[in-house]
Write a structure and sequence with these properties.
Layout: H1 3-18, H2 30-40, H3 82-89, E1 98-99, H4 101-112, H5 116-130, E2 138-139, H6 187-200, H7 208-225, E3 230-231, H8 235-249, H9 262-271, H10 287-300, E4 306-308, E5 314-316, H11 326-341, H12 347-367
Antiparallel strand pairs: 1-2, 3-4, 4-5
Helix pairs in contact: 1-2, 3-9, 4-5, 5-12, 6-7, 7-8, 7-10, 8-10
The protein binds protoporphyrin IX containing FE.
The site of protoporphyrin IX containing FE (HEM) has 27 residues, from helix 3, helix 4, helix 5 and helix 8.
Length: about 375
């Protein structure tokens, strides 16, 4: 038997034993993944999953017996995203918190009914900034050996908790990285979330009014107190979209009134758990639903991107794309942020990056008229 065949059998046996639902490299040791790359170059990159089939893309009980909540164990990774944490704790994603992009796309479609394009946009964007293109794995939290040996520096492969990539300042339930751990749920901030819902939301819920006020307040707070605040592309887009998401995806699809109760918010944000009997959205949610809501909250309290040069000294960055410039933010990610980590990739690494860049652009162009840009040539 060749070394390769022996390795693959070992890998398959391990996967069969430990991860029956996922054909993932996650869970293999660094040595085993290294061996895989030595032999294979890079892990195979599956195509992005197709949309859910028409006969299975509607309202559905998702906190079901096939997806029981199991609290994260000591070796399971969780991070700054309340949705992905929850999906991992229900087995819609690998419970250890290291996943392939296609698993993430499938997990968010099945568990919360994200539209296919929207899911791919979030996942491939995050993967290019935080994942490992060689092993095709990404941590949903801190950096971990679970995602295998890193490509050469300055690549970070930091996982979703990596500050200054997808993760950034002014989060609603996490403090800014300048203060402490930017990925951990913060009870004081959740109390503020609750107060704003009581004050501005219908019947004390987190609705679009509450979103607009809390989002604005979190920016004012960081401007006043975080001397190193960065509030520019691409963070501005995720900050404003994430504020809206809970009013959609965390609300039971049978009600679907865009009014999130504090009890349901507590479940997702703090317990990383779906409420009992939770049903997902009644139809896939794409940009056409998200974009106008983001514009609506922006228009209530418009801002210009910028950075703090010391507390209370917010300096505008007029050269960074504004929140409404979706294609500008796409180009900023592809031509500045990603080459910042991968300045001159070659060989299999370049190929893997280009493949993921194509997947990312496929999602970007599905509902936005943006021109594709190529940091590493066509
Ligand atoms: C599909 C792939 C997704 C990826 C890769 C992703 C990634 C992230 C990351 C990196 C953060 C940290 C940003 C920060 O606050 O600094 C975050 C925050 C967040 N995510 Fe996700 N996310 C995804 C989907 C979702 C979905 C479907 C929801 C639905 C509710 C969601 C809700 C949130 C919320 C509410 C926050 C903000 C937490 C806070 O500000 O306290 N995410 N996500």
């Amino acid at each position: 038997m060749t070394k390769f065949a022996a390795f693959m059998i070992l890998a398959m046996v391990r996967l069969a034993v430990t991860l029956p639902a996922y054909e993932s490299l996650a869970g293999l040791s660094e040595r085993e993944i290294g061996e895989f790359i030595n032999i294979n170059g890079v892990a195979r990159i599956p195509n992005p999953p197709a949309p859910l089939p028409e006969n299975d893309n509607g309202l559905k009980l998702v906190n079901d017996p096939a997806h029981p909540f199991i609290a994260a164990g000591p070796n399971d990774i969780r991070g700054p995203c309340s949705a992905l944490n929850t999906l991992a704790s229900h087995g819609y994603l690998p419970r250890n918190g290291a996943a392939r992009p296609d698993q993430l796309v499938t997990g968010v479609m099945e568990g919360l009914n994200l539209g296919n394009d929207f899911a791919k946009f979030l996942v491939y964007q995050a993967f290019l900034m935080n994942g490992n293109p060689l092993t095709n794995l990404m941590s949903i939290g801190m950096k971990t050996p679970e995602t295998g040996p890193d490509p050469p520096k300055p690549a970070l492969v930091g996982g979703l908790s990596q500050h200054g990539t997808f993760e950034g300042d002014t989060s609603m339930t996490r403090v800014d990285a300048f203060f402490r751990d930017q990925a951990v749920f913060n009870e004081t901030l959740f109390q503020e979330f609750t107060e704003f819902s009581t004050k501005y939301g219908f019947n004390g819920t987190y609705d679009l009014n509450a979103v607009a006020e809390l989002r604005h307040q979190r920016l004012l707070d960081s401007m006043a107190n975080n001397p190193e605040l960065v509030f520019a592309s691409p963070r501005i887009l995720s900050a404003y979209s994430e504020a809206v998401f809970p009013t959609i995806f965390f609300v039971d699809g049978r009600l679907n009134n865009r009014q999130l109760t504090i009890d349901a918010a507590r479940h997702f944000f703090d317990f990383q758990m779906m409420p009992a009997d939770f049903h997902r959205q009644p139809a896939p949610v794409n940009f056409t639903i998200i974009d106008p809501l983001v514009s609506e909250i922006f228009n209530k309290h418009p801002f210009t991107p910028g950075v703090n040069k010391g507390k209370g000294n917010f300096v505008l960055m007029l050269e960074t794309p504004s929140l409404s410039d979706f294609c500008g933010i796409y180009e900023d990610i592809v031509l500045r942020v990603i080459p910042g980590q991968y300045p001159k990739p070659t060989g299999a690494l370049k190929q893997a990056l280009n493949t993921n860049l194509d997947f990312f652009y496929g999602a970007v162009s599905a509902e936005h008229d943006c021109k594709q840009v190529f940091p590493y040539g066509k």
